[in-house]
Specification:
The protein is mainly α. It is built from two helices and no strands. The termini are far apart.
Length: 79
């Protein structure tokens, strides 16, 4: 995606949020902001945990492959 498209998507999302807020009374706007911030934090936490788990699985996989390579090696006596 080019930069202009990303900017347009951000602006569209901003207007979407404004439209959602307009559906609720003004007294609820602060509550909506709190929910929005909590959801952002949950998504960030999920992403970090996902990548941490992914990297640990890759390390386990590479360790298993190293063990397989080492176990398949046999000493051969010549002569």
């Amino acid at each position: 995606m080019n930069r202009e498209m990303i900017d347009r998507l951000r602006e569209a999302k901003k207007y979407e949020l404004m439209a959602m807020k307009a559906l609720f009374p003004d007294s609820q706007s602060e509550h909506i902001e709190v929910m929005k911030n909590e959801i952002k934090e949950m998504v960030v936490e999920f992403v970090f945990e996902f990548f941490a788990q992914k990297s640990s699985e890759e390390e386990k996989c590479s360790d298993n492959k190293k063990q397989e390579k080492e176990s398949n090696v046999k000493k051969v006596k010549i002569g």
